[in-house]
Write a structure and sequence with these properties.
Blueprint: E1 6-11, E2 14-23, H1 30-47, E3 51-61, H2 67-84, E4 88-95, E5 100-109, E6 124-128, H3 134-142, H4 152-159, H5 163-172, E7 176-179, H6 184-196, E8 198-203, H7 213-218, H8 224-233, E9 237-239, H9 245-251, E10 260-265, H10 266-276, E11 284-291, E12 297-300
Parallel strand pairs: 3-4, 8-12, 9-12
Antiparallel strand pairs: 1-2, 2-5, 3-5, 6-10, 6-11, 7-10, 8-11
Helix pairs in contact: 1-2, 1-4, 5-10, 6-8, 8-9
Length: about 300
């Protein structure tokens, strides 16, 4: 069963959580790129309720580019890792036609308290901690449809750590979780539904979106991966007739460093949302978990 990170059990009370992630720039600013890459790399550990303890830099960089650019990338990454309390203790670099950056991360977890994708239960609700749309907005940036100044909120969303949300969900006690990255909200929830043997129903009105996302989707501005996600979930998803293609595309948008989707008993949802409100002001209860039916996912309007 695929999960967000690999787990190596050491004893009955301690296991290592291991993951790696890296990608080319999604924004023009090198410092912001570094921040986003490290926040994204740590996310898989947080999604499982683990505590990241050390990271190794993974770097590819063009020989002819200014070393100052690489310095800014690494500074951005280092600053976010410091904020997370995760020392970067080494790494490896290669020459590459375009920059790539990320981390290999080691974390720790109690093997009896792992939060996985397969834990969602009928009667649970789904909380999403970050707004969607980073893939659409960064694609618009690459196409010069919008400027970097217009996606300030998007950049800060991607650079935001999932640390606080992870610590709160561990404290509150939840049944399942995953982070929303390349497969989009619906792609990752489909995995959760499949492995938990349930159906997940989403209230389209409740899902938080970044500004301009729907307008850009109406202009057919979205990554190729987003359209692939839409096709991937199509045969498992029921959409209310009122759900537009643009809304469906936004829910399938391939995210970089997205939030956590958390499945937990309804009676705990208000407490969790109140506890993460300061760090995740746009977190929202977006749906519910039901007994498995013909459709693994349902997207409804209200």
């Amino acid at each position: 069963m695929p999960d967000d990170a690999g787990v190596y059990k050491i004893n009955n009370h301690l296991a290592l959580v291991l993951t790696t992630d890296f990608f080319p720039p999604v924004v023009d600013n090198p410092y912001d790129y570094g921040r986003i890459a490290v926040a994204n790399s740590l996310s898989d550990i947080y999604a499982m309720g683990g505590k990241p303890v050390a990271g190794l830099n993974i770097v590819g960089f063009p020989e002819k580019e200014s070393p100052d650019i690489l310095k800014d990338i690494l500074k951005g990454g280092s600053d976010v890792a410091y904020k997370a309390g995760v020392p970067i203790i080494g790494g490896h670099s290669i020459k590459n036609p375009e920059p790539i950056y990320g981390l290999a991360v080691t974390g720790i977890i109690n093997p009896n308290k792992i939060i996985s994708k397969q834990g969602a239960k009928p009667g649970d609700v789904i909380v999403l901690t970050k707004p969607l749309g980073t893939g659409i907005l960064t694609t618009a940036l690459k196409k010069n449809i919008i400027t970097e100044e217009q996606i300030g909120e998007c950049v800060e969303t991607m650079a935001m750590l999932n640390k606080a949300a992870s610590e709160v969900m561990v404290k509150v006690g939840v049944n399942g979780a995953t982070d929303i990255t390349g497969f989009g909200l619906l792609g990752h929830l489909l995995e959760m539904a499949k492995f938990s043997d349930v159906t997940i129903s989403i209230d389209a009105n409740a899902v938080p979106l970044l500004d301009m996302v729907i307008d850009l989707a109406k202009q057919n501005v979205y990554p190729g991966g987003t359209k692939s996600n839409y096709e991937y979930v199509r045969n498992s998803t029921y959409y209310d007739p009122q759900i537009t293609f643009e809304t469906a595309i936004a829910f399938c948008d391939a995210q970089t460093s997205g939030g956590l989707a958390i499945s937990l008993p309804r009676r705990k949802a208000k407490r969790l949302l109140n506890m993460i409100k300061e760090k995740h002001p746009k977190a929202a209860l977006i749906g519910e978990v039901m007994e498995r039916s013909e459709w693994l996912l349902k997207v409804k309007k209200g």
